[in-house]
Specification:
The protein is mostly helical and 98 residues long. The chain has 4 helices and no strands. Helix 2 crosses helix 3. The protein starts with a helix and ends with a helix.
């Protein structure tokens, strides 16, 4: 029970903007994995493809932000949180294949 409380405490202290990046990374990776599995036989490739797509999109988003500094704020932490969401989704997909 202490472990769950500790996890919930950590999540509660993540800034709202970073939670959105985490969630977006998770959703994008999950969608890519599901599309991959619908086209091909479910395998590790879907999890890897989902993670790579999240990596590409999150880096592209921060490049866009760096070119539009008047309205956007580029942050390396945004990429890290997006990648974390993609990693969580990919990890769950890999576990489901076992």
């Amino acid at each position: 029970m202490k472990f769950i409380k500790k996890i919930l405490h950590i999540i509660a202290n993540i800034p709202h903007d970073k939670l959105l990046h985490l969630f977006a990374g998770y959703v994008i990776s999950h969608i890519v994995n599901n599309v991959y599995c619908a086209i091909f036989t479910p395998s590790y490739g879907g999890a890897i493809a989902g993670f790579i797509v999240v990596l590409a999109i999150s880096i592209a988003k921060e490049i866009y932000d760096s070119k539009h500094r008047e309205t956007e704020t580029p942050e390396v932490k945004d990429v890290i949180y997006s990648m974390s969401g993609g990693f969580i989704s990919s990890l769950i997909s890999l576990i489901a294949l076992l």
